[in-house]
Amino acid sequence: MGRKTKVIELTETAKRELEEGYKYSESVQFSRRCHYILLKSQGKTSEEIATIFDVTIQPINKWCKQYQQHGIKGLQTKSGQGRKPIFDKEKDETVVKATVQKERQRLKQAKDILEEDLGKSFSLKTLQRFLKALAADGNE
Q1: Where are the alpha helices (DSSP H) in 1-140?
Q2: Which superkingdom heads the taxonomic lineage of this protein's source (predicted)?
Q3: 4-13, 23-32, 38-47, range with the lowest pLDDT
Q4: Residue 55 parent element (H or E)
Q5: Domain containing 63: what range?
Q6: Of 7, 15, 24, 38, which is least packed with CB atoms within 10 Å of its CB?
Q7: Does residue 126 belong to any structural domain of this protein?
């Protein structure tokens, strides 16, 4: 015999907030998390929800627990989550600009020099994106 399905009881206000988050949020992750809770409140098991979204049950259970502890605010991604950037504009801007200026015609060589100087490993594409971001900041 299987475990009893935990159903999340929602007030009308909470249900409305979750539906708005699901339908109108600009963040796909937040929208998906709201949808998890709405499906859980309808009596769906974590396994059924995981199958619908093609994920394991761990994120379903994690976000249900977050919602029960912190409400809808617990479903939002907090700052500091996710991968940290390789380059820091304040610390690395001058070194990167100076090195690229010296090796203007050979960005690959500038990348190799920067990796050695900064002690960081990164792709040529990452360096190009950082330079593009610096140029965009300078144009504003």
Answers
A1: 12-24, 28-41, 46-53, 57-70, 89-102, 107-118, 124-139
A2: Bacteria
A3: 4-13
A4: none
A5: 12-75
A6: 24
A7: yes
